[in-house]
Design a protein that fits this description.
The complex is a heterodimer of chains A (957) and B (456). Chain A has 957 residues and is an alpha/beta fold. Chain A has 31 helices and 37 strands. In chain A, 27% of the residues lie in helices and 19% in strands. Chain A is globular, with a radius of gyration of 28 Å. Chain B contains 16 helices and no strands. The N terminus of chain B is likely disordered. Classes of the chains: A alpha/beta (957), B mainly alpha (456).
Chain lengths: 957, 456
């Protein structure tokens, strides 16, 4: 693989501090007074190092040399694809990384990986930026200041000596040594940590995730015993009840779950399932539901209590919301095909009770499986963060190793506790809050630069292989642990190879497993553990007494920044949140009635007080949120995320340390403008939309094409036959779309779409070629929500083409509406004339001002200059690539657009609409197919399949 | 500004009875050639020029920054991709119509009153067309390629795209500006010859001599001159209609709600006439006392222009009514949403301001007393100019802010750079007009002499 140049920022900063940061050794040299002799020495050093810097540094694992001759298998202009995995809170999602000339430029899902099935989520798409991020760690730090590797090694040695020295009171070796990690599913890393623990028997391993799922694990402990995980099969369920659930958007395995769920949503292609959602604040799962019921957190507890009473104790329904009885009846009527899922924000008792309900509904083996937990260690002897912090405050922790978690940022108490620890080392791939607060910071290589393994939600092991030489240096986590042990460092690849030698004995097996990205047959075994009776005991519904101005605060992870790790990624910052469409900020989500009562409008600032902590932030009115319930998004307001993420939004972690209701006090300060990509569509419409068409299953059964029509005009005068042998078209199934924005992110990465920043979004100049429109219908308090991906429709009769005075946008023979950037003079008439408003204009040189290095861009897609219009091309570069392959192999083009590839729900299909066998042609023949804005006579090549809701007739809407 | 015209003069007179061809020539030439006791470069001219140049400087800075930084310095955005740029263009080109209506259309109609006004009106046309012409170039994302609109042979083998209203617009504007210059210049030839002959200073003799193109006033020259002038007028009259129709088609050719209307071509001609007459009236009311033109521009002229203003205001009112009617009679819900937004939304003050200024106040002109009350007429005209500007804001911005898909609704707030460019274009207009006032005869002397000669 050719060497990579990164760090484009080196040499641009000239201040001493920045210089020292890049060249830590300079600090010692600069601290002396400069005499002539020393000056000449330094100059000589500079001259010599100029030559040295030209050489490839190599890695600790393997020597890399400059590519004087082209690397084997790398053909200029052709992509190379390597499998690896993306880690999401410890769980692997298999990905394929596309390289161009050795540069990773695009992520796709790994079809062989059960947690991906070929799809990706937004965070996986955004990995490319993280990889090239100029703000990543470039060297070790000591108390936040750059230091050298030898100094670090010496410190580690000293720390090891402290830890191993027998304590005067005769305690074990390692007493006082603590290791803090996140959830770990990697068998190799887990074993390495256990090795450390074995060497230092007194040491304790603490596991903690900022956005944890401990309650789910503990609930399963209660229900079945330790080390149990649940794998759902939503595709097998006829009725699903989602209780404040994250099943489709962030639970481990959510991509696979979304795929299976969505496969049962289109009545034209099979029998529909039915999803009920009960939740305090709208989620993707709730929006996807046929019936969405709004419940405050207090009501949620009541609902769980009543559900367990009816389903487990067979009590007669009494009280509770009206819809509960028909929902229970529906679940019961589908015995063995019904599934209940509870989100991670509810206590272990509730989780156990829900699992008991699932057992009572008889779905085990069909709609869910109980398997061995993929997490490491298999048994839970680990401590919690709270226990660790107690020990730290007591002074019982003498050495602390923090592996790739950021507790200083995410658990405010931790920062103070850390001051009591004499030796602390933080390992992370960027100098974040914890790295700067710990005594030593060891830079880790990025996940795309190291070897490793990790399990998916079902236990399947994915192999992680480096995609490049570490751009900024950095150690492997495995090597770092070895270094801590004082053992001679072994190449991580060898450690990994050894770990799997039993299963992959021959080099051929190893190679095949690397190529596939997964080790076959590693899926977790099913467990026959019976349900424990303890699970039936559900905690009594807690009551949430509220005084005036008091509200229940729900703190949820930001869907894209997650616990804050994505904060320095501008792609994630600028990706519209699925429902609010807010970017670059985390306003407090407030229900409409509270906003009305407090006379608040979007952007007005409030003070949020909980216990002794308070936060000041703007608000955003969220239709469909439960009365008296406000939602804050975590992961914002980072202090040391990097240049992009520092200080963006408000840090709400301090509020999480407190409990109880919050007081909200409106401030009289001027409102904060909130960057939002759908400012004027927050209005709730009462009339059914003709653009995002929808109806009920009953209507569909009456007349399947009751919503269709308009896709193909019946009038011969206007009928346009796609004449060419190949006519590209797309069909988007609104039944499947869950609004997750993975397609938007994939499109941005694939097509070099620039990020414009908060100020430009405030001026409505965002550049996404593909957007997901969100429509509300009904009342503001309980609207029906619809998502509709909106992209260039590639109209047969394109209004944009006729108005361009220079013919910069024209039609090609295959029906693509092509944009000739070089010809565009920027009249913007095409955008004005586009009824779908899918064209974006480069008001400034947005691409030029991006912080990522140019080598991270897709070389097959032109980067657009200032003053030029751009829009969706149907991934014309992929069509061209597919055509070459098709010409070579003599088969039809197999084109998969970037949005289509990323979609977990397979809502998008693309292909030749003149090919009767193509998936897109079959989908377009669906009775639900319609064209958006048919009255415009544009004959779009993109058509939609209208959304059908499987309403329960027993529940009045 | 005097409130009333001279009481001794018959209101119906087009020219004071005491005036002779000689006195007229003397007076007008004295202004232009800066000679004699009525020698002319008054203080107000210098102050006006200073003010105009200051505005022009602001515009130049604004354009320089625009070219350096890009279109992003303006407030235009994703849904509202046109703003002040196109708005000001349409506004200026409409203002430019007045001169052509008066000098060409009413020449063909043999309206005797146009003779005193045509030079002044045509000069206004010229300056306004100049201002209008810069905006289509400035509004481009890559203005240095503006010539790609022109179908010229090139190595790229590319041609302009003739289906685009912007190409029609390019040709319409080009033809209109060129013909306006020619018509103005051709009408000026006999007067330039007069100036050449009367000039005392060498530079004036050379300057006007070169410009006069050897016009000697021979019978043969007059025999050719008059038919050509007539033919040019016959060309100009339809041209003024076509240019505004095509400006209307820039919008009508679009599929945007609020633009896609078959009545736009005549609607834009009505609007152009309204603003054209208004600006001529404003200039006349100010210049008559300032330049001592009372004997030639009388109450009759003001009265006639007032009637024309009222007529065109009524035409515009008809267009507004039809706009509302076709929206609510038509089947398109997007049109209705957009129109409701005009009536009640963010820009509702703009809509109602348009109605009041363009239709409401001009109704006062039904009364002759008001038509002759110069300050009131002047204010009504100013209102019309502002009203027409607001109308264009409404057509462009409120339509784009409320297109078919609610997800693409937006709004537009002009920035300092757009305001400074508007001021700059006003500065350009005033600078050019003040220079013409100073160096060109503001009355068509030859035609006036002919009229005086034929006076009964």
């Amino acid at each position: 693989m050719p060497p990579l140049e990164g760090g484009s920022r080196i040499g641009m900063d000239v201040s001493d501090a920045a210089l020292v940061r890049h060249f830590p050794q300079l600090e010692a040299a600069l601290s002396h007074t400069l005499d002539r002799r020393r000056m000449l020495k330094l100059l000589g050093l500079a001259l010599a190092s100029g030559g040295v810097a030209g050489c490839d540094p190599g890695t600790p694992d393997r020597g890399f040399v400059s590519a004087v001759r082209a690397a084997q298998g790398v053909v200029p202009g052709l992509p190379n694809i390597y499998a690896t995995a993306h880690m999401r809170d410890g769980y692997a999602e298999g990905i394929l990384v596309t390289h161009q000339m050795g540069r990773p430029i695009k992520i796709e899902g790994n079809p062989d990986h059960p947690s991906s099935l070929g799809a990706t989520d937004v965070t996986a798409q955004a990995l490319v930026y993280d990889f090239y991020d100029p703000d990543r760690a470039t060297g070790p730090l000591h108390r936040g200041m750059p230091t050298s590797w030898p100094d670090l090694a010496a410190a580690m040695q000293a720390m090891r000596a402290t830890a191993t020295a027998p304590h005067p009171d005769g305690t074990q070796a390692g007493e006082g040594l603590r290791i803090l990690t996140g959830t770990i599913t990697s068998p190799t890393l887990g074993r390495a940590i256990e090795q450390v623990l074995a060497t230092f028997p007194g040491a304790i391993w603490h596991q903690w995730d900022a956005i944890g799922r401990e309650s789910v694990t503990q609930g399963l402990d209660l229900a079945y015993g330790p080390s149990i995980a649940i794998v759902a099969h939503p595709g097998q369920a006829d009725v699903l009840l989602a209780l404040d659930s994250d099943l489709l958007d962030s639970a481990p395995g959510h991509l696979a779950y979304a795929r299976a769920f969505a496969a049962r949503r289109n009545p034209a292609r099979g029998t529909m399932n039915r999803l009920y959602a009960v939740e305090p604040t709208p989620s993707l799962t709730g929006v996807a539901a046929d019936h969405r019921f709004i419940a405050t957190p207090a009501m949620m507890n009541e609902v769980i209590g009543r559900l367990s009473a009816q389903l487990l104790q067979n009590e007669a329904p009494s009280g509770g919301p009206d819809w509960l009885t028909p929902v229970v009846a529906d679940l019961r009527a589908h015995h063995g095909r019904a599934f209940v899922h509870l989100g991670p924000d509810y206590p272990a008792e509730a989780q156990a009770a829900v699992q008991a309900m699932n057992e009572a509904l008889g779905g085990r083996g069909a709609v869910f499986d109980i398997v061995e937990s993929p997490c490491y260690p298999p048994a839970p002897p680990t401590g919690t963060l709270a226990a660790l912090m107690d020990d730290m405050e007591r002074g019982a922790v003498r050495a602390l190793l923090i592996l790739d978690v950021n507790p200083v940022c995410q658990s405010p108490r931790f920062a103070a506790a850390l001051k009591h620890v004499p030796n602390s080392i933080a390992l992370s791939d960027r100098p974040h809050e914890t790295a700067l607060a710990a005594q030593w910071h060891v830079p880790l290589a990025h996940a795309m630069e190291e070897w490793g393994d990790a399990r998916g939600h079902d236990g399947t092991v994915a192999l992680i292989q480096p995609q490049a030489v570490p751009l900024y240096g950095g150690m492997n986590a495995l090597s770092a642990l070895h270094a801590c042990l004082g053992q001679p460092s072994r190449p991580a690849m060898d450690m990994l190879r050894d770990a799997w030698r039993d299963r992959l004995p021959t080099p051929r097996d190893w190679h095949d497993a690397l190529a596939a990205g997964v080790i076959a047959g590693t899926v977790s075994r099913r467990v026959d553990a019976p349900l424990r009776q303890a699970a039936m005991r559900v905690a009594s519904p807690a009551s949430f007494p509220r005084a005036a101005n008091e509200a229940v605060l729900l703190l949820r992870p930001d869907p894209y920044l997650w616990d804050g790790r994505g904060a320095n990624n501008p792609w994630l910052q600028e990706l519209p949140r699925p429902l609010s469409k807010v970017v670059w900020d985390n306003p407090l989500l407030v229900p409409p009635d509270m906003a009305q009562a407090m006379n608040l409008r979007n952007g007005d600032r409030v003070i949020l007080t909980r216990g002794t902590t308070r936060a000041q932030l703007p608000i955003w009115i969220q239709p469909g949120q439960a009365t008296g319930c406000v939602v804050g998004l975590l992961g914002w307001g980072r202090r040391h995320a990097g240049e992009t993420g520092n200080g963006v939004g408000t840090d709400l972690y301090p509020l999480r340390d407190m409990t109880g209701p919050v007081q909200i006090e409106a401030l009289r300060t001027p409102a904060t403008p909130i960057a939002c990509t759908e400012h004027h569509a927050t209005a709730v419409g009462t009339a059914p939309s003709d653009v995002a068409r929808h109806g009920t299953l009953a209507q569909f059964r009456d007349r399947p094409d009751f919503l269709g029509g308009g896709a193909t005009p019946h009038d011969a005068l206007y009928h346009r036959d796609p004449g060419a042998p190949v006519a590209w078209g797309m069909s988007i199934d609104l039944n499947a779309c869950i609004g997750c924005n993975a397609c938007v992110s994939a499109c941005q990465v694939e097509n070099n779409i620039p990020v414009v920043g908060r100020d430009e979004v405030l001026r409505q100049r965002e550049m996404h070629w593909l957007r997901i429109d969100r429509l509300y219908e009904g009342t503001e308090h309980a609207p029906d929500t619809f998502f509709q991906p909106m992209l260039c429709m590639h109209c047969e009769q394109a209004p944009c083409e006729t108005v361009c005075p220079v013919g910069a946008t024209t039609h090609d023979s295959e029906g693509l509406n092509v944009m000739v950037y070089n010809r565009c003079i920027g009249t913007k008439f095409c955008s004005n004339n586009c009824p779908y408003k899918v064209r974006r204009f480069n008001y400034f040189a947005f691409a030029e001002h991006e912080s990522r290095p140019p080598i991270s861009r897709n070389p097959d897609v032109s980067v657009r200059a200032r003053g030029v219009m751009e829009k969706c091309t149907f991934c014309v570069q992929r069509i061209a690539q597919a055509r070459i392959v098709a010409d070579r192999d003599g088969m039809g083009e197999q084109v998969v657009t970037a949005c289509q590839a990323a979609c977990p729900a397979q809502a998008i299909s693309f292909g030749n609409i003149n090919d009767p066998a193509a998936e897109v042609t079959r989908r377009k023949a669906s009775p639900l197919t319609y064209a958006a804005l048919p009255e415009q006579g544009t004959h779009p090549r993109v058509t939609y399949e209208a959304r059908i809701l499987n309403r329960n007739p027993a529940i009045p809407s | 500004m005097t409130g009333k015209t001279g009481a001794a003069v018959d209101d119906a007179a087009l020219i004071f009875p005491a005036e002779t061809p000689h006195s007229l020539t003397e007076r007008i030439c004295a202004i232009t050639l800066h000679e004699g006791e009525s020698g002319w470069t008054p203080l107000w001219w210098w102050l006006g020029l200073g003010f105009a140049l200051a505005l022009l400087c602001m515009g130049v800075i604004s354009v320089a920054w625009l070219f350096y930084a890009g279109l992003g310095i303006w407030g235009i955005d994703w849904p509202v991709a046109w703003g002040f740029d196109i708005l000001n263009y349409v506004w200026w080109i409409a203002i430019a119509s007045g001169g052509t209506f008066i000098s060409a259309l009413f020449f063909l109609l043999r309206a005797p009153w146009r003779t005193s006004l045509n030079r002044l009106a045509e000069s206004l046309t010229l300056c306004a067309a100049l201002c209008a012409a810069i905006f289509p170039i400035l509004h481009l994302g890559r203005p240095w390629f503006f010539y790609w609109l022109f179908p010229y042979p090139n190595t790229m083998g590319l041609w302009a795209q003739f289906r685009s209203p912007l190409v029609w617009d390019f040709f319409a504007i080009l033809a209109y500006v060129l013909c306006s210059i020619l018509f103005w210049y051709f009408g000026l030839l006999p007067d330039l010859a007069t100036l050449r002959d009367r000039a005392q200073q060498r530079w004036q003799q050379v300057f006007y001599g070169v410009l006069a193109l050897g016009f000697r006033g021979s019978g043969r020259q007059w025999r050719h001159y008059q038919p050509v002038y007539g033919v040019m007028a016959a060309l100009m009259a339809p041209l003024v209609v076509s240019v505004h129709s095509i400006v209307g088609m820039d919008f009508a050719g679009g599929a945007t709600p609020g633009w896609h209307s078959t009545q736009f071509p005549p609607f834009f001609v009505f609007g152009a006439a309204l603003s054209g007459f208004a600006v001529v009236l404003m200039a006349v009311i100010l210049l008559r006392p300032a330049m001592g033109l009372h004997p030639y521009i009388t109450a009759r002229h003001i009265d006639t222009l007032g009637r024309l203003l009222l007529t065109s205001s009524l035409c515009v009112a008809y267009a507004y009514v039809m706009d509302a009617f076709s929206t609510y009679y038509g089947p398109d819900p997007a049109d209705r949403t957009m129109f409701a937004f005009r009536l009640h939304g963010l820009y509702a003050p703009v809509y109602w301001g348009t109605i009041v200024l363009n239709i409401g106040f001009p109704q006062l002109l039904w009364w002759r007393a008001i038509r002759l009350d110069l300050p009131v007429v002047w204010l009504i005209c100013l209102g019309v100019l502002i009203g027409m500007w607001l109308e264009r804001f409404l057509i462009i911005v409120s339509s784009l802010a409320r297109t078919q898909l609610p997800s693409a609704w937006g709004q537009y707030t002009p920035t300092l750079w757009e305001w400074s460019l508007l001021c700059g274009s006003i500065g350009l207009f005033l600078t050019a007009f003040l220079l013409l006032l100073r160096f060109m005869p503001m009355l068509a002397m030859a035609e006036m002499r002919a009229m005086l000669a034929h006076r009964p």
